[in-house]
Amino acid sequence: MIVLTIRALGLLVTWVMCAANHRPFDFQAWDGYFYLGMADYGYGGFDPSVTYDLQGEYFPYAPMAFFPGYPLVVRLLGLPFGGHLLAVALTVSLAASIAAGYGVARLAQHAGAGRRGQLAAVALTAGAPMSVVYSLPYPEALLVALAAWTLVAILEQRWILAGLGAAAAGLTSPMAGPLIPVVMAAGLVHLFRARTHRIAAAVAVVVAPLGMLGYLLWVSLASGVPGGYFGITERGWGNRVDFGVTTARWVLDMLTTSREVFPVLTAVVIVAVVIATVRTRMPWPVWLYTAGSVALVVAHSGIIHDRVRLLLSAFPLLIVAAIRLSRRRGRTTAFVVGGVVLAGLWFGAYSLAVWPSSI
Question: Is this entry keyworded Glycosyltransferase (predicted)?
Answer without folding.
Answer: yes
